[in-house]
TrEMBL record:
Entry GO MF terms: galacturan 1,4-alpha-galacturonidase activity; polygalacturonase activity
Homology family: Belongs to the glycosyl hydrolase 28 family.
Catalytic activity: [(1->4)-alpha-D-galacturonosyl](n) + H2O = alpha-D-galacturonate + [(1->4)-alpha-D-galacturonosyl](n-1)
UniProt organism field: Hordeum vulgare subsp. vulgare (Domesticated barley)
Protein name: Exopolygalacturonase
Gene3D superfamilies: Single-stranded right-handed beta-helix, Pectin lyase-like
Amino acid sequence: MAFRNVAMRVLLLMVVVSAAYAKGKEEKKESADGPAASGPAASGPGGEYDITKLGAKPDGKTDSTKAVEEAWASACGGTGKQTIVIPKGDFLTGALNFTGPCKGDSVTIKLEGNLLASNDLSKFPSNWIEIMRIKNLVITGKGSIDGQGKAVWTKNSCQKNYNCKILPNSLVLDFCDDALIEGISIINSKFFHMNIYECKGVTVKDVKVSAPGDSPNTDGIHMGDSSNVNIIDTTIAVGDDCISIGPGSKQVNISGVTCGPGHGISIGSLGRYKDEKDVTDIHVKNCVFKGSTNGLRIKSYEDSKSPLVASKISYENIKMDDSGYPIIIDQKYCPNKLCTAKGDSSRVTVKDVTFKNITGTSSTPEAVSLLCSDKKPCEGVTMSDVKIEYSGKNNKTMAVCTNVKVTATGVDKANACAA
């Protein structure tokens, strides 16, 4: 019995030693090969990854692409709530690809510093910051996403060529659900500042988007094939559309937006490509336009490729401050005379559009321009309490309307379409 107890003790000791040896061997391997698969503990526990702990330099010159992507890989691969911290400073990067789905409940990017896009276009196969197939994403902070577009805007040939090479968009959300972009600034993009595609449930709140008024194709926020998009209390001053609502957009709510300079808040352009999807349930309210070249605009190509419908659109409580073409539906849209239509071939239907309490001043005599198609006249257009006055010296405010019947109440005579 005593012998048996001794033997058991020896066996137990061998097991303990063996386990300790295996653990030590594994620790040595991890030390040699780098962190475990869960990613580097960049700033301690809790799933928070500070890019400066991973080698990013806040000098605006050192390429920090690798450090930012390492932080993303760790956060996306972790469980629970994960956070990436971009602290104060300037961080230069090339293309950043943040692809999911992620393992955890959510990923938050705390942007307190500034991300700067490289001006070496060879670093961008397509976009700059592309976030794809992510659920429960938050980008928040007081920092900025700076596209540094001024250095490359002269390379944009899209004003002359339909098939131009597209410069990188700054922030792109593809196939993302339940995303919040809040508090940050997006500035001087090489092309669009923000592009939302095939997403459900995106909120942009208290964001500042800015670029010079003459910067080419620098749309503030563009969306397409997306639903339940909310843009709230955001200021946009750019060289193209402040907000452009592309084909396939539905359940869009825009409130408290200030636009200008820029080309206005536009639905479209529609009909440029085949098999585009309908646009419906678009609501714009409590917005201000300051010196924009357009105001509330719906635009479709004269030579539209496929039939589609834009419907259930409302504009309410809008203030115009010396903006051009404050209310405009243009079904013969043809930028830079690049269209191929011979005559009126529009296949886009515009219907059920409401303008309510639209007031202020226009920089063009045409305060209201409803230029609808011969083959597809606008349907169900309603105007109430529309009072816009041309700010020019002769005060010849007018409404230009073709192929549309308008139901109007409380509309200034100068803003009313003739019966």
